[in-house]
Write a structure and sequence with these properties.
The protein is 38% helix and 18% strand. It has 17 helices and 19 strands. α10 packs across α13 (268-278).
């Protein structure tokens, strides 16, 4: 009877101190997480090259404190605070970083009972510090975001959201940040939602070709605009004297009228289906919260005018920069959508690997030959169209500008998406700069700096 009582007691302690603790600790805002971090040697977060992105140091009062040497990664790394809870990777990976996961259950139980310090496990990210620094420097203090992916694996090479904050100072600055009209705590890269402007033409073109509604060598004319239900969409962008041109140049010159016509011709069901294949309106597994991009507002439906404006990237579309980076990655990766990820592996303090991410193909979005055709359009856009500011010497780059209309009286958002090298892409980039004007002038040079850092050594 005594032994049964002992085992029952032990089982209960293990449940509350180990299993149930992991469930509780995963909840954002749980003060127990922050309280434990004060007496825990929380694990270190490393970049892909081994440099430190977050570490624990003894504070002047004897408690541990978290240090973050790379300010531009604040939104991805997150913060940990008794007052303001936990966010970012500090929250999603808390079980490993705190040592609640990845070590022996009885050892964790004893440490919790005895109040002895626990050494958490380390995590290694996919972040490339050269690419991250280039993205942060090029974007500067302007409001916006940059996402760079390896399209073959889904590894996030860089993620910047501005304005930023100091996660080490969240305890002192949290109240001010919560009231900040610039929404500094918002991770614009994964949770900001914007009209995509002409970057969406990449999806429209892919859908039009893959559905069979258009051939890659389709020809277009635009003399007096495209009229749909009395609404005129102008031929802006067509060079003077040019009466007929192909789809590659309609893309390179970003002619809204042609993409409006494509959307109406293929129909709403096809455009919606392909948008969802690219990831719109679907939850995407990721290491930190990722908001799904939107095609239509809830309860709304298409008419021909709304369908036409959606075709060139306006309408009711609302996208994250991550979604645009993933769209570029699909085109780069022969039409396959690969799950994005930030955490490459989790390891013990001694370096023993506990878990490692394996690249996962989510779905084949478009046929490889469709992806090849759209890559060709993107190359033409950089070589002959409005995307020339993204050109990298010695590297064939594909790109697409975007200048997204917003509320009346406000400056347009500047967008750019790109892939490189176009014949064997190793990087896909999305850039947005809020209320900054033309994508070609503002966002394309930022993407160029990011690609250059990744490819030119």
């Amino acid at each position: 009877m005594l032994m049964l009582g002992f085992f029952a007691l032990t089982g209960g302690v293990v449940w509350w101190q180990v299993v149930r603790a992991e469930q509780l600790n995963s909840r954002g805002g749980n003060p127990r997480v922050a309280e434990l971090s004060v007496r825990t040697a929380r694990g270190t977060i490393f970049a892909a090259d081994g440099s430190v992105l977050a570490r624990t140091e003894p504070g002047p009062d004897g408690d541990n404190r978290r240090v973050y040497p790379v300010p531009s990664l604040a939104h991805a790394l997150g913060y940990i605070s008794p007052r303001f809870g936990v966010s970012g990777l500090e929250q999603s990976m808390n079980g490993y970083l705190s040592g609640e996961r990845g070590s022996e259950p009885l050892a964790r139980m004893w440490a919790d009972i005895s109040r002895e310090p626990v050494r958490g496990n380390d995590i290694v990210l996919t972040i490339d510090p050269r690419v991250q620094d280039a993205a942060s420097t090029a974007l500067g203090v302007r409001r916006g975001a940059v996402v760079a992916l390896d399209p073959r694996s889904g590894a996030v090479l860089a993620m910047v959201s501005t304005p930023g904050f100091d996660p080490a100072a969240i305890e002192e600055q949290g109240e001010t940040l919560l009231k900040d009209p610039n929404r500094s705590l918002l991770n614009r890269a994964t949770q900001g939602q914007y009209p995509p402007g002409s970057t969406f033409k990449t999806i429209t073109a892919a859908a039009a070709i893959d559905s069979g509604a258009y051939q890659p060598n389709a020809r277009f004319r635009c003399l007096n605009g495209y009229v749909v239900q009395g609404f005129v969409i102008a031929c802006k962008g067509v060079p003077a004297g040019m009466r007929e041109y192909d789809l590659a140049h309609a893309f390179a010159w970003s002619i809204n009228a042609n993409f409006a016509e494509m959307a109406v011709t293929m129909g709403a069901p096809a455009l919606v289906e392909y948008s969802r294949r690219f990831g719109f309106e679907r939850e995407m597994p990721f290491d930190i919260p990722l908001t799904a991009s939107r095609i239509l507002r809830q309860g709304e439906s298409f008419n021909d005018v709304l369908l036409a404006t959606t075709g060139f990237g306006q309408g009711q579309l609302a996208v994250t920069p991550m979604q645009i980076a993933l769209a570029a990655a699909v085109v780069a990766n022969n039409g396959a959508l690969v799950q994005p990820y930030l955490v490459e592996r989790v390891q013990t303090p001694a370096g023993e690997v506990l878990t490692r991410h394996e690249p996962k193909v989510i779905r084949q979005v478009i046929r490889p030959e469709t992806a090849a055709a759209v890559r060709g359009f993107m190359v033409t856009a950089v070589r002959e169209g409005f995307s020339g500011a993204a050109a990298v010497p010695g590297v064939e780059v594909g790109g697409k500008t975007g200048t997204a209309e917003v509320a009346d009286g406000q400056q347009t958002h500047a967008w750019f998406m790109s892939i490189a090298p176009a014949n064997d892409p190793r990087i896909a980039v999305a850039v947005i700069v809020e209320n900054a004007g033309q994508g070609a002038a503002v966002a394309a040079p930022i993407a160029q700096a990011v690609m250059r850092a990744a490819l030119v050594r």
